[in-house]
């Protein structure tokens, strides 16, 4: 196990091509979900749910949709950007052991969610913290996670039978990996470079 939470944070990667497809023990999956469920939430609303997807048919249908959306995005690119994007793998939907979809229910804990009256998105932020908890727990377990964002929420809601009013906010590919890369994929492919911390820190005012 890593020595500290800082090590886990800096080793975490968005995994695409390193999944092995090996089985994931039920007790490990339970630990990941428990870590996600332990995330802080505005008004203790816990506005998330977790849909665990093992079915190859569902994953195959989602994978086809993802690659249709990839083509939509690719059509907006030209020149070097198009060439770089063509080399980037965008998902591990079929290669990973399973997937977990995290949803957000804006009505959970309502009608008066303590702490959300002035910032409507505070509940959505809470669900994202559950995603981060799961991701860090997986990294500590030497597992990989890949967040797939090439999809339309309406499509995914229908595919999984998600009730109206509940948003699917993250499709996460999860499973054992051959390794975690030292350098993030998008940086390695020259898509973007990370900003130094000094450029992101402001003192007292912007």
UniProtKB/TrEMBL annotation:
It comes from the Bacteria. Residues 9-175 form the Nitroreductase domain. Keywords: Flavoprotein, FMN, Oxidoreductase. This is 5,6-dimethylbenzimidazole synthase. It comes from Actinoplanes palleronii. The lineage of its organism: Bacteria, Bacillati, Actinomycetota, Actinomycetes, Micromonosporales.
């Amino acid at each position: 196990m890593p020595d500290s939470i800082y090590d886990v944070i800096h080793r975490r990667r968005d995994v695409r091509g390193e999944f092995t497809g090996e089985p994931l023990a039920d007790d490990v999956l339970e630990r990941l979900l428990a870590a996600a469920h332990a995330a802080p939430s505005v008004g203790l609303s816990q506005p998330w749910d977790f849909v665990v997807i093992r079915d190859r048919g569902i994953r195959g249908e989602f994978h086809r949709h993802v690659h249709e959306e990839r083509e939509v995005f690719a059509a907006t690119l030209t020149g070097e950007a198009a060439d770089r994007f063509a080399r980037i793998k965008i998902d591990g939907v079929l290669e990973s052991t399973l997937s977990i979809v995290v949803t957000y229910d804006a009505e959970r804990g309502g009608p008066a969610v303590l702490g959300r009256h002035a910032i409507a998105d505070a509940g959505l932020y809470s669900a994202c913290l559950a995603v981060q908890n799961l991701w860090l727990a997986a990294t500590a377990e030497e597992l990989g996670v890949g967040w797939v964002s090439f999809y339309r929420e309406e499509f995914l809601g229908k595919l999984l039978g998600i009730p109206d009013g509940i948003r699917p906010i993250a499709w996460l590919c999860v499973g054992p990996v051959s390794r975690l890369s030292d350098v993030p994929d998008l940086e390695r492919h020259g898509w973007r470079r990370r900003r130094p911390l000094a450029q992101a820190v402001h003192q007292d005012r912007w």
